[in-house]
Amino acid sequence: MRTRTEQWRKASLGLAGLTLGVSLCAAQPPVDLEQRYPAGSITTAGLAEQALADAAATREAVDARYKAESARCAHVFLATECQDKARRAHTLGQTQAHRVEVEAHDLQRKLAAQRRASERDVQQQQLRQQEAERPKKERQAQNAAQQRADRAKERTQDALRQQAQAPSNRERYEQRNAQYEQDEAKRASVQLRNVAENERRYQDKQERAKAYAATRAREREENRKAREERERQRKAAATGGTTDATAAPPK
Description:
Largest sheet: none
Low-confidence stretches: 1-27, 243-248
Structural class: mainly alpha
Number of strands: 0
Strand content: under 5%
Radius of gyration: 70 Å
C-alpha cells in the first residue's frame, strides 16, 4: 500500500515538474538584452524607447520564471540550492534589464537636455535678434507717429484755411451765380429777339407771297380780257360788220 502511495506521489511530482517546465519555457525572456543591447549601443531616441519596452517585457518574463522556479524547487531534492540558482538567475535578469533601462533613460535625459539647450539657443538667438532690431523698430514707430502727427497738423491747418477762405469763397460763388444769371438773361433776350425777327421775316414772306399771288391773278385776268377782245374783234372783222368805236368794251 505504501509503495503505491509513493509511486502515485512521484507521478504527481513528475507531472507538476512537467507543468512547471512548460510554464518555465513559456516565461523565457522575449529577447536577450545583453546580445541586443550591449553597453553603449543605445544611441537614438527610437532605440531607447524600444529598449525600455524590451526591458519591461524581460522583467515580466524573469519574474514569471522566478515564480515558477520557486514553486518547482519546493518539490525537488536540494531545494535550497535550486532556490539559490533561481534567485541568481532572477537577479541576473533584473540586473540586465536595469542596466538597459538606466542606459536608455540616460540617453533620453541627454537628448532632452540637448533639445532644451537647442530651444534655449533658438530663444536666445531670437532675443538677440529682437534686441538688435529694437532700435530700428523704435525709429520706425517714432517716424510713423511723427508722420501721423504731421498729417493731423496738416488737416487742422487745411480746416483753418478753409474757414478763413469761406467768406471769399461764398463771394466768388455768388459772383459766379450772378454772372451765370446775367448770361442766361442775355441768352434768353437774344433768343426772344431771334424769335421776333423770325416772326417778322415770316410775316414779310407771307405778305410778299400774297402780293405776288394777287399780281399774278390780276395779270391773268387782264390777259384773259385781252384775249376776249381780240377774239371779238376777229369775229366782227370776219362778218364784215362795223364796230362801234365808241362802244365800251365789255366788262
